[in-house]
């Protein structure tokens, strides 16, 4: 069973106050893009997991766990538990989504494992897992997993796991600059809190930006570029100052929108057309401001059986 699953970019990431459960209230406008991991699930005597970089990718996979800590392995165990079977499966992940890059690669792999294992262990003698079941299990695994199942463009609230599809017209053209090494998501959130405390600022209650939603609904790339926003960006720049150079280079080279993707350190650049994206990718690669430059389009579907 082979499943393809996309990366995401946060078109808006509004970070609110810390909740009693330790998470922040969020408003996330997720956008799935055509940068894919692929997961293959096959019957095995036990739970096995292997990770490799996709042939066209320079993704560093050395820090990806291949044991029970991996979110895809945890997803397989969760599906097995729900179905009352033993988690006897071999999982192979081919990664093109940057690791710890703010594009939800681990969550994407978990979503792929949920879909693949549910199909692999489907049996007419017991009820199959529904899409709603998988979404619920995804939220149990992590805040970004449900969106990797859904794909497209969607508004996420709460921890980001409660999703509403967003009206989006047309195709948007992206260039992503992946940095050497990752950033810890908890560390970036902690730095965001520290910066706010140091400035004497209280965390605002986030809300969806109307200009962003209008840009999506009308397919206006320039308006979307102007509306991109990420409350975690100052924290990511504080922890990785070199990202400011990457963002500035993209803007100088013609991007109509630029921001750090999620908790970083991948930087996302919006171009007006596919041709503009191709030119921007070549120029950024020549500028030497990132470990890898990749192009993608969005929105695309979520986890898909191939």
Automatic annotation (TrEMBL):
- The EC number(s) attached to this protein equal 2.7.1.148
Annotated GHMP kinase C-terminal domain ranges read 213-285
GO aspect biological process, one term: terpenoid biosynthetic process
InterPro entries, sorted: GHMP_kinase_C_dom, GHMP_kinase_C_sf, GHMP_kinase_N_dom, IspE, Ribosomal_Su5_D2-typ_SF, Ribsml_uS5_D2-typ_fold_subgr
From the UniProt record, give the pathway where this protein acts: Isoprenoid biosynthesis; isopentenyl diphosphate biosynthesis via DXP pathway; isopentenyl diphosphate from 1-deoxy-D-xylulose 5-phosphate: step 3/6
**Annotated positions binding ATP:** 98-108
Swiss-Prot/TrEMBL keywords: ATP-binding, Isoprene biosynthesis, Kinase, Nucleotide-binding, Transferase
Locate the active site.
Answer: 8, 144
- Is Thylakoid tagged as a keyword? no
Q: Which residues form the GHMP kinase N-terminal domain?
A: 70-152
MF GO annotations: 4-(cytidine 5'-diphospho)-2-C-methyl-D-erythritol kinase activity; ATP binding
The top EC class, named as a word, is transferase
Output the HAMAP family linked to this UniProt entry.
IspE
Q: Known NCBIfam families for this protein?
A: ispE, PRK03188.1
**Which family, according to UniProt?**
Belongs to the GHMP kinase family. IspE subfamily.
Job description of the protein: Catalyzes the phosphorylation of the position 2 hydroxy group of 4-diphosphocytidyl-2C-methyl-D-erythritol.
Q: What protein name applies here?
A: 4-diphosphocytidyl-2-C-methyl-D-erythritol kinase
